[in-house]
Design brief:
The chain is 0% helix and 48% strand. The two termini are 21 Å apart. Strands 3-2-1-4-5 form a 5-stranded antiparallel β-sheet, with no helix packed on it. By secondary structure, it is mostly beta strands. The chain has one domain: OB fold (Dihydrolipoamide Acetyltransferase, E2P) (Beta Barrel), CATH 2.40.50.140. The chain contains no helices and 5 strands. The radius of gyration is 12 Å and the shape is globular.
Length: 80
């Protein structure tokens, strides 16, 4: 996924499907990318206003990388 990041340039818009996992205390969401690779973390703060994540929902998003945690996450998540 790191090669899909466009460091310093305009963000690349990707697409995928929302999946959920039920933890003991809450439901967590992630995106399964259409292009394959590792799942992408979905934080509700990154949803475009009016979007509520639901398992099976198709979305577009911009891929970002957290260098400290060495994980990718999605931002500007929109339903399609």
């Amino acid at each position: 996924m790191a090669e899909l990041q466009n460091r310093g340039a305009s963000p690349v818009e990707l697409s995928g499907m929302v999946e959920s996992e039920h933890a003991a205390t809450r439901i967590r969401f992630h995106i399964v990318p259409d292009l394959g690779g590792a799942d992408v973390y979905l934080h509700q703060k990154q949803l475009v206003q009016g979007v509520t994540p639901q398992a099976g929902q198709r979305v577009t998003y911009e891929l970002r990388h957290d260098a400290v945690k060495n994980k990718c996450w999605a931002r500007n998540i929109r339903a399609i």
